[in-house]
Amino acid sequence: MAGVSGTGDVQPHRSHRSRQSGPSAKKKSKSDKRKRDISDEKKHNPKAFAFSSSVKAKRLQSRATEKEQRRLHIPTIDRSTGEPAPYVVVVHGPPQVGKSLLIKSLVKHYTKHNLSEVRGPITIVSGKNRRLQFVECPNDINGMIDAAKFADLALLLIDGSYGFEMETFEFLNILQVHGFPKVMGVLTHLDKFKDAKKLKKTKQRLKHRFWTEIYDGAKLFYLSGLVHGKYPKREIHNLARFISVMKFHPLSWRASHPYILVDRFEDVTPPERVQLNNKCDRNITLYGYLRGCNLKKGTKVHIAGVGDHSLAGVTGLADPCPLPSAAKKKGLRDRDKLFYAPMSGLGDLLYDKDAVYININDHLVQFSNVDDENGGAARKGKDRDVGEVLVKSLQNTKYSIDEKLEKSFISLFGRKPNVSSKANNLNGIDEIVENINGEELGQYQSRGENEADGSDEGTGSEDSDGSASLEQDHAAKKDATLTSKEGLEEENGNASELQPPLKDNVEEKIEFHDGRLRRKAIFGDDIDDDLKDLDEDDEENEDDGDNLSFSGSYSSEEDGEDQKTDGDEMGNVSKWKESLVERTIPKQNTNLMRLVYGEESASHSTNSVDEAHHSSEDEESEDDEFFKPKGEGNKKLREGLGSGHVNAEDCSKFTNHANLKKWKEVEIVESIRDRFITGDWSKAASRGQVLETGSDRDDDDVYGEFEDLETGEQYRSQEAGDAGNDAIHKENDSSIEERRLKKLALRAKFDAQYPFY
Ligand SMILES: Nc1nc2c(ncn2[C@@H]2O[C@H](COP(=O)(O)OP(=O)(O)OP(=O)(O)O)[C@@H](O)[C@H]2O)c(=O)[nH]1
């Protein structure tokens, strides 16, 4: 039996440390010192500089390898001369995610200037030796493809409160095909989370997903919310610093091809030419920084969305936004120009499509709105000058005539409702519901009609009951949300057909959220489940009081799984493309011919199978008649320019593909074989005669009419034969004989010259 003693053990007190300094410190004698030296010598350990801890050793080893790798890394050749062109930062994200706001905040950070709107590329000086060009990526596939071509850095904005949307994955996929540039994620709308714990979890989940899609450790920034309608200064500062020090490696294809991101353009066609013919070919001057390598005069250039053109000339211009080191100040009043945004109205000059505007301070302008607010009250009651009234009315106009015209349209034929444009509209739900019910509505309907509930549809009567109010409206909208989803499927034929699951583990779900149609990316794989587990673990840990960092709880096993899923995703690129192509096709222009005459007739079909069929038919008919009416040729030309030649050198230029012979066909090859020195000349001659008459060999008996030069015999067609029998007999036999001998002599001469044939 073990007993437990009641008294505790008496612990010995630790002895005091002897003092090393001060008056009470023991003075070291010389002999002591000598003794210590000897003992040091004795202690000398040959392994003194070897590691004693495995962790330290590991760290040392990894550092050495890293250094070695850095040494081995081949330096990139920078062939650019002079100042490097600004790096292009493409800001991408689904609609309303905060792209413009981010650009505005970044511009404000770098230049201390407020940007009123984001239009076209915005160039800013971000450091002593660096300039950046911000571009907002358009919300359509074609725009994304263009943006992927010139982006040096892509900022992918993600609505944190909603999650990933398909736009992000589509853009990532497009980037992959264009030689992946640097990519950074930015989470916005995080202020919508009220629960801090939920916010933390969502951040983790999104970060994980982002890492899975790009690479482990890809940078993801969080913008926690809005302060005075802008992103917090601190966060923008961090993001800006990150961009400023980022290393950009030139992509090899881009480094060997010249390209320009146009930041402004001018139409320099002589006005009289435009007056004479409004649709004349225009001369355009494009301005932008040249990147890649040098551009030669006369080179063919491709303008995205326009086509291939030849360059009339290239001129070097003064840098509109020079680096601070390179800028030469002319006077004291000259300040550094830290930005250049000709299309956005930043700075003193604003360039439009066809005009240049000069910015004048408000106090210098007589009738500006600001002055009006101050002076308006003082001048109350007084009649205004006619000119002033005119100016005021112009100032009050919200939309220019161009904009009004752009928004209006004449509906000649039944049109498909444009879902995407309506989705941007808050009233979109109502409109879609009405379209589902098969009604054609005009564009300019009164809001009252839109607000009328289902029973009022068609009558156009206003909702007279004021108390029918919000609740009903809300209910109606809810219904609308449900029906609109079904309706969308109906409209698209079959939604699942049109939008196949892009990856095995990523699916697209269309839904209304925050008043607009969104394409949510849903992940079917177990990564999110892992994360859920992870979250749960995390929760437990938190409960235990352990504050494990995220990376700490991320095991290597999970790493492996992630990599596996990565691999799977890469293998599904073609599925991505299917969807992209489907969504790009509707962007093609409406075919007016089809609208007027209905479906295209079979003869004009662009279907490749049909095309093949028709081309074979054409060949047959070609045999029948040699000469074709002019229209026929055009028809062939149209076919020649069909979908089969999409990859031709230049789709925009006139190429008569129909006139090109199909040299691969055996018959055509055979027909010219005997015309060469190795062939049978006699055959060639006879065939040549046949070809000249434009008939086939089989038809010779019926229509053929030729003279065999070898034998001197003459063949005539039946009809011709009857008519000209006498003529043949009358022909001089001696002359025929003479010709034949001449020919034989020639042949003998040739044989003598080339005995080997
Ligand atoms: N609450 C909140 N609102 C935000 C945040 N970011 C942007 N917004 C708001 O979202 C709206 C859309 O912002 P924009 O910058 O115009 O978005 P966008 O992506 O440029 O929109 P489009 O150009 O139409 O695609 C603005 O009203 C912003 O104030 C955010 O983090 N939190």
Can you give a write-up of this model?
By secondary structure, the protein is of the alpha/beta class. Among the domains are: 87-253, Rossmann fold; 259-318 and 342-359; 363-397, no CATH class; 407-458 and 468-498, no CATH class; 601-651, no CATH class; 666-753, no CATH class. It has 28 helices and 17 strands. It has a 7-stranded mixed sheet with strand order 6-5-4-1-3-2-11, with helices on both faces. A hairpin with a 3-residue loop joins strand 9 (300-303) and strand 10. Helix 3 (99-111) packs across helix 7 (233-245) and helix 14 (428-436) crosses helix 16. It starts with 29 loop residues before the first helix and ends with a helix. The model is unreliable at 1-8, 371-381, 417-504, 526-574, 600-625, 636-648 and 690-704 (pLDDT under 50). It binds guanosine-5'-triphosphate. Residues 93, 95-101, 139, 188-189, 191, 223, 225-226 line the site of guanosine-5'-triphosphate (GTP).
Key words describing this protein structure:
single chain, 757 residues, alpha/beta, Rossmann fold, two-stranded antiparallel sheet, 28 helices, 17 strands, G_Bms1/Tsr1_dom, ATP binding, nucleus, Bms1-type G domain-containing protein, ATP-binding
Short recap of the structure:
The protein has 757 residues and is an alpha/beta fold. The chain is 43% helix and 12% strand.
Detail the topology: elements first, then pairings.
Layout: H1 30-43, H2 54-72, E1 87-92, H3 99-111, E2 122-127, E3 130-136, H4 141-150, E4 153-159, H5 166-177, E5 182-188, H6 196-213, E6 220-222, H7 233-245, H8 252-255, E7 259-267, H9 271-276, E8 284-291, E9 300-303, E10 307-310, E11 339-340, E12 349-351, E13 356-358, H10 369-378, H11 386-396, H12 401-407, H13 419-423, H14 428-436, H15 447-451, H16 469-491, H17 495-498, E14 506-513, E15 516-523, H18 527-544, H19 556-571, H20 573-584, H21 592-597, H22 608-624, H23 630-640, H24 666-673, H25 681-693, H26 700-703, E16 706-707, E17 714-715, H27 718-730, H28 733-753
Parallel strand pairs: 1-3, 1-4, 4-5, 5-6
Antiparallel strand pairs: 2-3, 2-11, 7-8, 9-10, 12-13, 14-15, 16-17
Helix pairs in contact: 3-7, 4-5, 6-18, 14-16
Bound molecules: guanosine-5'-triphosphate.
The site of guanosine-5'-triphosphate (GTP) has 15 residues, from helix 3.
